[in-house]
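Obj: model holo form, ligand = S-adenosylmethionine.
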Amino acid sequence: MPPRPDEQAVRERFGDLYQLVQAPIKREIERAVCGCDYGGTSWTTRREAEHVGALLALAPGRRLLEVGAGSGWPGLYLARTTGCDVTLADLPLAGLRIAAERAVADRLPGACWIVLADGAALPFGSGAFDAVSHSDVLCCLDAKLPVLRACRGVIRSGGRMVFTVIFPKPGLSSADHDRAVESGPPFVETALAYPAMLRQAGWVITDHADLTAEYAQTVRRLLREEEAHADELRGLYGEAEFSEKLAGRRRKIRVLEEGLLRRELFASTTADAPGGR
Ligand SMILES: C[S@@+](CC[C@H](N)C(=O)[O-])C[C@H]1O[C@@H](n2cnc3c(N)ncnc32)[C@H](O)[C@@H]1O
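Output (holo structure tokens):
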């Protein structure tokens, strides 16, 4: 069994990562792989972000909350391109500081608030938001159901939530399950399937898509870019860490090709919305 991750250690790792991914070579690779340069750590591409914005019906005057917003991807992009107001919430200060600088530099058309907050204990009143999004966040934390409940607690009736999440294919042998867990994000395992979790948290699914093939393509593009920029990346990471990174990408691609790990998108609305049940 892979060792159980420690939440505090994961947050500290994200804090370090947000500083590292600001390096010019990392931003260049991010532009080539995902079509953006916010220093993102999810697998959300620009195309996917645009789809999320459409599913959330974002527009000027709408209030979007992004949970686990990191350095602002894709929340700041959605705010810039749709004109909505945005609130970014996360725990590592390092990412939020970078997001704050980017928000100022981008001269967003709407309002922007940046909040140091746990996704499971959101410091907002009920109905504070029209839309909530999170990109590969639930697979980076243990308290998945409490986060979905907290999101439900701050959205208005009939508001929308869209998220992506990575998880092991259900029903794997224990050896394959362990391989999926080792290649996935730190809290990729889940005792309860996401549709059941959404129901328990007071959400109704309105759209659901399997993004595993796109995820595999993105990892392949990333591996190609990292191989093409090997000298610069060796300088950034050091030889041993860079070799381990490439080996990890190749393992992940194999796991995805074998169908052991999935990445899916869920769109939902509140269960009390008209037509919500
Ligand atoms: C895969 S990253 C996604 C970050 C960003 N949205 C992006 O797409 O680049 C997951 C994020 O979830 C955040 N996170 C983990 N546990 C959290 C919690 N309990 N509350 C809020 N954010 C959390 C991490 O700090 C990290 O920034």
